[in-house]
Every structure is written in structure tokens, then in C-alpha cells.
Amino acid sequence: MADTKINIITDRGESVQAFAPVIVSASRSTDIPAFYADWFFHRLKQGYSVWTNPFNGVPSYVSYQNTRFIVFWSKNPRPLLTHLDYLKELNIGCYIQYTLNDYEAEGLEKGVPPLNQRIDTFKKLVDRLGVGRVVWRFDPMILTDTICIETLLEKVRNIGDQLKGYTEKLVFSYADIVSYKKVKVNLEKNNIPYREWDEVTMNEFAARLSAMNNERGWNYTLATCGEKIDIERYGIVHNRCVDDDLMIRFSWNDSELMKFLNVDTHQIQPSLFEEPEIPADAIIISDTLYGIKKKNSKDKGQRQFCSCINSKDIGQYNTCPHLCEYCYANTSKETAIANWERHKNNPNGEKIVGLY
Asked: Considering the entire predicted model, what is its pTM?
């Protein structure tokens, strides 16, 4: 189970208890692929790392002994390219939630590589992993005195045209600034004149994005992340970012993972005269195979409108040197830089920040 604990031996020879998750999230709280890929894969080889609870500051051990699947989150996952073969050796599946925004003109993401390089990285990862394993996120959609709905749609159109054939999905969210104290403080500290979304502007954007998806022939699945508003009438669904459907598609032959997800696989029986009967809730794996989930694995520890399944996030807040102006994961740029320097002083430490 997700909360299974086992005994492990640390780098210092101590015997300790550790969580042993089947599914790892790397990570919602910092950009592990961009800055900590070498650290993560070293810790994967060591068999464990240390995670600090953001609410009480208590450290705990996380073992990778039972890990069968990793969901990566990143704005620059290019460093993963040198590590993907090792995951294949371990028979650990993965896909990437790739946040590929365009706020270059506005300077909201000064720490990320140029847009053309990030698009090139997207395509290189797809060439290695296959279509569907790199999910395009334009997240968050931000309104300011210089960014209106029309501007956002132009930015989406530019990237969407270049990613045609390389992604199946576009995931987005509306920047909910008032509800996220860190985001509000960071934007005001950095003198960004933001505007809040309301139901009218959300619906306008959704309708126009859906129309553009059809007009441009993208045929992307459009999905929102953690949004309360129902815009399904525009063909936009609620996303599940840590998604067991994708895991079933990509790792259906991993019996341990399928057992954990409580999934049965079934052969599609061919028919000469009519379409084969496939249950409405089936996950299509191939032309000859589908899967059926026998339980709901929703992670109850996430936000109210988040549909992600259970996983263990192993990142740490206040450690991302991208230093985006609207960041929800850093309290301050100074704290993030200080922790980045601590990491560089001990890049193989048990914790991201290099301690222990």
C-alpha cells in the first residue's frame, strides 16, 4: 500500500523505518528534473532519500524498494534524457508533466530556458518515451495589465501548433491568486499587476480555447487542473495529473503495479461482423487489450478538486531556482537560492538541501 513501511539501512549504517511507495511524484513542490535529477537518480540507486514534511518540519525516510512508477513534474526536464535508460533497467515506468508556458515577453519565468529550446526538449523526450508520456501543461494561465485572454490564446496557439503530433493533451489552470498567499505575496513583491479570473472570463477563455483546438486540427484532450468550475460543455474535462489510466496504458505488463492499482486486463475479442463489446469504463491499452479498475485510488490528501491518485511526493518547498515571479512553492527567492547553494555543497545528500 501507499503507506507501507519497511526497515532500511541508511548511508551511515543506521537501521530506520521508511515509507515504501509504489508511485512516486517528483515533484509538485520543486523542479527535480531541472535541478535535482542527478541527486534523485543517485538516491534511487542508494535506495532511499529523506523528505521533510512542509507542515511540521519533521523529516522521514522514503524507500524506493517498492517503486514501480514515477510521475515527473518540470519546466525544464531536459536533464532526464541522460537518466531514462536507468529507469528502463529498473523496469520503473514514468511519464512527465511538462509545464511549457510562454511568459518570455513579460519576464514572469526568467529562470527557464528560451521557449524554442524547451519545445525542442519536449520533442526529444517524446522521441525517447513515446507520444502520451509527455503531457503539455500551460499552467497557470495568468491575467495582468499586459496579458489578456487574447494574448494567452496567441501564446497557446504558437506552442500548440509546434507540438502537434507530439502530445495528446493540454492541461491548464486559471491562476487563483487570492487563494494562494505565497503567489499573491510574490506577485505583489515583484510588482506584477495581476488580475483575478471570474466565471465570465473563465468561460470565455474555455470556449475560445476549445474552438481553437478544433480549428487548428490539434484534437488535444483539454483538461483543467484542480478547478472547481465546470466547463465540460466546451469539451474540457477535469484532469488527473497523477493518473492511473496513463500508468495502465504504459505499464500494463507490470504485474506488481497492476496489483497495486487493482486492475484486471482483458483481451478484446475480435468479431467479423460487429464492434467488439468493451465496457464503458475500460482503459484501452492496445487494439487487443483493455484494463478495468476495481477501486478508486483518489488521493484524499490533495486539494478538494484534485483528482490525482495516491502517490508519495519526495520534493521540498523553497528549493526551486527557476525563481518564477508567481511561484507558489517558494516563500522567497532568497530562501530558494540559499537552499540551492546548500544542495551544491553536498549534491548526493539524503535530502535535497544536502544535509545529513
From this structure: 0.94
Residue 23: enclosing H or E segment and its boundaries? strand 23-26
Q: Rounded distance, CA 67 to CA 141, Å? A: 33
- What's the gap between Cα 322 and its chain centre? 16
SS3 at position 44: helix
Place of cell 478508486: 296
Task: Return contacts of 100-106, CB within 8 angstroms, 24+ apart.
Answer: 100/75, 100/136, 100/137, 100/138, 100/159, 100/163, 101/75, 101/138, 101/139, 101/155, 102/138, 102/155, 102/158, 102/159, 103/142, 103/147, 103/155, 106/144, 106/146, 106/147
pLDDT of residue 33: 98
C-alpha span between 135 and 297 (Å, rounded): 21
Residue showing cell 506552442: 159
| SS3 assignment, position 346 | coil
- DSSP annotation string for 141-198: E-EESS--HHHHHHHHHHHHHHHTTT-SEEEEEE--TTT-HHHHHHHHHTT--EE---
Predicted local confidence at residue 272, as pLDDT: 66
Cβ proximity of 333 and 324 under 8 Å: no
**Cα–Cα distance between 128 and 121 in angstroms, integer?**
11
